Amino acid sequence: MIQYSQPVNKSRDIYQSITEKFSQIKINPTPINYTVWYEYFLGSNLDLNAEINDLLRNSKHFPDRLGLRLYEQYIEKDEPHAQTQYDAAVASHVQQTSHQMDVLKQNMAQHSKTMQSYADNLTVPNLQGNDIENLAQNIRSVTELMESDTNKICDDLQSSSQQVKLLRKQLEQARAEAHTDDLTQVGNRKAFNKALQYLSIEQSETEQPLCLIMTDIDHFKSFNDTYGHPVGDSVLRYFAKIMTQEAEENETVCRYGGEEFAILMKNTSIEQATRRAEQIRQKIASCRLTLKGEKKPIKPITASFGVALFKGKIESLDEFINRADKSLYRAKEFGRNQVVHEQMMT
């Protein structure tokens, strides 16, 4: 969470304002919402303040999901370097657009004066054919110059806009990479934490069940010790592949750490989640991997699974994770290569 160092009096005033605002529009007092509104009343995050002011003009509703989005968009930076580049490019593009419009306005004013003088000349009595022809040529020249100026500015703005789009794409790629485990290409711990926050908020709004499967590979260290770390890495990649191959849209697969993985399943009962864990367990247990360049298979791969159902607002997210972990540890105590859900432990 963000740390602030403000004078005591200022912090006290800000927290008083936060308390009044939370009471006024009934905002849930979560740490993230507090951080968003502290930043708002601090007044240094202009983009955040502008969006909140715009939102409050149209609605007095401030759900937790909105607080989380604002926190991630304006306060927490997943990839600071890419974000800084993008912000600088947008600011430069806005500045360039403003400057180009001023230049265009000045040029058009000058061209307008020139055209007016030519128009005045057309009213002079007894104009000769050569005079009219020269005036027509001058008008064409000014018109072409106006078109050239406009086209140049449009090209410059188009080039600037393309640069912003490219940096936006790079920023999105950097954010995706910041949430992806390099080895297995599933979500990493940061992706898990973010998904869990969103899904827990969604669960509180919809009251649909949310389940968590915690799993890890049995005796994983022995693969590294027996065959070497490259084979151990292959086992982890294969395990992740098994979990994602037949994953439904309601499943979020992440590497929690080391050989431990997590699967979040929204709109899923504990019975359904247990069946899904058993399906994965059977599939990984039936597979046989062979060493590259050899026909001899490595020893069987098995995994243990623990399943828990989120209790909603009466428990913290850490408590939810701990309950799934306890089920996982119980599966190992029972002999590994099996699935245990918390209701089997009561």
TrEMBL record:
This is diguanylate cyclase. Residues 101-177 form a coiled coil. Gene3D superfamilies: 3.30.70.270. NCBIfam families: GGDEF. PROSITE patterns: GGDEF. GO terms for cellular component: plasma membrane. The keyword Coiled coil applies. It comes from Thiomicrorhabdus sediminis. It comes from the Bacteria. Its cofactor is Mg(2+). One of its GO terms (biological process) is cell adhesion involved in single-species biofilm formation. One of its GO terms (molecular function) is diguanylate cyclase activity.
